# Entry
Amino acid sequence: MGSIKDRVAIVGMGCTQFGELWDKSYKDLMVDACYEAFEDAGIEPKDIQAAWYGSRESGFTGAHLANALKLEYIPVTRVENFCAGGTDTFRNACYGVASGAYDIALACGVEKTKDHLGGFTMYLTIPFDRSMAEWELPPVSQFAQLATRYFHHYGLGYEAGRRILSKISVKNHHNGTMSPKAHFRREITLEQAMNAPMISYPLNLFDACGMSDGGAAAIVTTPEIAKSMRKDYILVKALALANGAGQATLQPEYDFIHIPETVAAGKAAYKEAEIKKPRQEVDIAIVHDCFTITELLIYEDLGFSPRGKGPEDVEAGTFELTGDLPVNTDGGLKCFGHPLSASGLRMIYEVYKQMQGKAGPRQIKKADIGLVHNVGGVNGLFNCAVAIFGRA
Amino acid sequence: MVGITSYGAYVPLFRLAREAIAKGARGEKAICNFDEDSITMAVAAANDCLNGIDRDTIDGLYFATTTSPYREKLGAAIVAMAVDLRQDVITADFANSLKAGTGAFRAAIDAVKAGSARKVMVAAADCRLGIPGSALEQNFADGAGALLIGDKDVAVTVEASYSVYSEILDIWRADGDIFVRSWEDRFSSTHGYLEAVGEAVSGLMRKSKLSPKDFAKVVFYSPDARRYVELARQLGFDDKSQLQDALFAVLGNTGAAFPLMLLIAALEEAKTGDLILLASYGNGSDAFVLRVTEQIEKIRNRRGMKEHLASKKVVTDYRRYLIWRGLLPQETIPGPIRFLSAPAAWREREANFRLHGVRCQVCRTIQFPPQRVCTKCHAKDQFEPYRLSDKRAKIFTFAMDYVTPAPDLPTVTTTIDFDGGGRMECYMTDREPEQVKCGLPVEMSFRKIIDKDGAHIYFWKSIPIRA
# Structure
């Protein structure tokens, strides 16, 4: 098996304002995200040879992106992979370049969740196929089951468990205050986070990310071409994707205190990027904090914290902006909200800006190796993407 | 001899204090949860009745009710599927009459006598609605009773029967009506109930040459808490020593299921040799002479009426009851486009109705829902069906949604591990939020998931073990 390491470079990125963008259509968001990327890369739309478009519910088929940008008769592929859709869209564009088929490719993810009441056109249905006997609730009850079992397994009482989750929320909200493009940019206190209204026990309002509109885009090319375009391009070190096969609900051995899809994607990505000690080697991680419990499990699943020790690292401030391994420096999904297929590319945008030293007041000191992580779906059927980046 | 070989009952967990309906009203009435109806209650009673009996020996299922969720569609087929009976059994709905329960009972006896079936299950259930605040609403209750009729190991023989019909507008519900209507009580009782049941019982005693003193117990359907006492006295029975309590203080009038449920309550106390008189009412009356055999002692291990009545939660908030019955408008889930696919529901019928998972014939792993390729050993298409509906389980983990609109918040989602293997994710119902914990033992209950486009979608939920 080959490797993607150092074979693809990012030479331009764009990201729209995230939020309740009542006055923007999904095509507006495509134009806004992609034209920022074109300008950043110093290219014209006509330079794009192939494009990948990620969306779950906002614009079907690649033609919608072609129409918005007037990409004339080039291949555009639509990618749908639920919450990991953005990173998977990027992944496909990278393979397009690495294959030698294209010199310059575009990856764009856009979602207008707020055009639908409740933010979702439909939930993932399990375990059945439209007989309507299936379990059907918003995703929070999937992740709440992880929190319930995590608290139970480690003997954390409700209060102690809530304190750890709340600290993650406070951290991300703090980082979000320094992110001009974030949806929510307000500090919250630990007390507020502890006592917010319950959404799905044991997760409350401040454990959950919001639903937002947004879009982001990346332009990828070969490192050789990238060199001719700019000095501060970013190299792709690893691209991993892992899908669950239903194990969590088919096999009682599954423990609900980790997400095996994250573990598998992380392992594959570390192998490709040749990372042996993630805690020491990764400088910045932008991960899928759809709910605070998800971020806590990610610390352990990606090897940032030993099993069961995530809470200790949270208490120690390890993942804060000033800590050893800053996580979600831009405020994460907590502050940007989660326009599904846009989120992965928004996360890559943050790593890209941090590596270029352009992250403003939230700039971290050292950003040589950056990691992006998405996970979506339901227990047993998660799809998880992990991408790793390095400086040129 | 043909007769009852097993019995089972179901009284919903919840009771509405009548005080919540009208100030000063006494006692409580059984009310089904928002996700229960006549079909789900019939399934629960039938499963109680089946306790220990091989389902494959059942040749028929008669479902009796005045409140089938469908105007046109066989309720008995849904009950038979959920009870996991063979596909080649006789099924029929006995409907539209308060004496549908005893009508089905009589038809089952005749079927077994005629030799067209060896064992026939009668499952009667009702959940009738009276206009909010009315006396009918105070009297009506929800519940189910099931009797297995056969000719071997008979616990209660049917010695004689006698039926009359009577045409009268005393209590009725027209097509499209939600609430039951009635004429003035004194007219209805005098020329409806008292007259018809009186004639049936007198006729029965004449026919079988019995007199009131021959009976150890008399079981009468009653429209309310008083009329059956009047009836008993009128017919020469001693209401103190012979009359089965009609349970209005703790249960209420359960319609077509009522006479069967009261009979089961009587059988729980009956002794070998007891002669029991049973009479129903509903535009006429079916009356029976029943004799208890020594076999009764072998079918005592059912939850029946006694255990179901003892296990309860009292609802005092009348609004909660109205929401459960769909009588108060409610916010619905925004956003998701939900559509029913009849082909998908049909493909999944073994899993959704029978709660059949599969067991891999190679590595023995039990899996739900059914798979084509084994999750463990990857063997393809080498599975045998495995019933989970009768297995107990323990909660592995759970969530409680307090926000998504639903009739009974919080909506509890559980991931449960079955004793003997198998895991599934399902809703939990009939629970108090504070009792839901990792490790809590649960059992499975057939419930309604959603009403959509005139269709009722059923599936199984976990419930705390009904003590």
About this structure: Chain A touches chain B through 44 residues (CB under 8 Å). Residues 158-176 of chain A form the longest helix (19 residues). The CA atoms of residues 198 and 204 of chain A lie 4 Å apart.
